[in-house]
Design goal:
This protein has 5 helices and 5 strands. The chain has 181 residues and is of the alpha+beta class. The protein has a 3-stranded mixed sheet with strand order 3-4-5.
Length: 181
């Protein structure tokens, strides 16, 4: 989240919580000295809105405002794959798996470059690969080999099941940028 959007999110949620707190306070304290509520609009009494409704709305404002502020302020939890070994839990971040996929994919003949995105699903890991292939290699031959290499490497090293590997060939590399084979 961009810094400005994050700031607005926190500010708006805290303002919402403050408005809810004022509503609850007004319902709890009651009207001001002249019989007029300090903040609750005068129409609420004439419109037949009972004070408990105003209190419930205020509570909803407080809870939703604090909820949004909590999620905006807490540090993001890095997604990871975990398993429990004999000595305890082992977590492998998805970023580490993406780097492993990149390194393994570059070992496949015909692949010049690739970017990997990994998602953890209930079925296992889902890999999204964006690859650049050298011009004198056939994509229908390179892609299955790349899929097999990534699946085998990740399952062997990380110990997590790979549900699927989807490849998008974004570019055909130019001759002058060929990697040594």
């Amino acid at each position: 989240m961009a810094a400005f959007n994050w700031f607005l999110s926190v500010l708006n949620s805290l303002v919402l919580a403050a408005i809810g707190g004022v509503l609850i306070w007004q319902v709890a304290v009651g009207p001001g000295p002249e019989g007029v509520p300090l903040w609750i609009p005068a129409w609420s009494g004439r419109a037949g809105v009972p004070p408990w409704v105003v209190g419930v709305v205020g509570l909803a404002f407080v809870l939703s405002g604090l909820h949004v502020a909590w999620h905006a302020l807490r540090p993001p939890r890095r997604a990871a794959v975990s398993f429990t070994g004999e000595a305890g839990e082992v977590r492998t971040s998805l970023g580490a798996i993406e780097e492993l996929a990149r390194r393994a994919g570059l070992q496949v003949p015909g692949v010049r470059d690739l970017r990997a995105r990994v998602q953890a699903t209930r079925e296992g890991l889902s890999l999204r690969i964006r690859a650049e292939v050298l011009p004198d290699y056939r994509i229908p031959e390179v892609a299955p080999e790349l899929q097999a290499r990534l699946k085998e490497t990740i399952e062997e090293i990380v110990g997590a099941r790979v549900a699927d590997v989807r490849i998008v060939v974004e570019r055909i590399a130019s001759e002058r940028w060929r990697k040594p084979e």
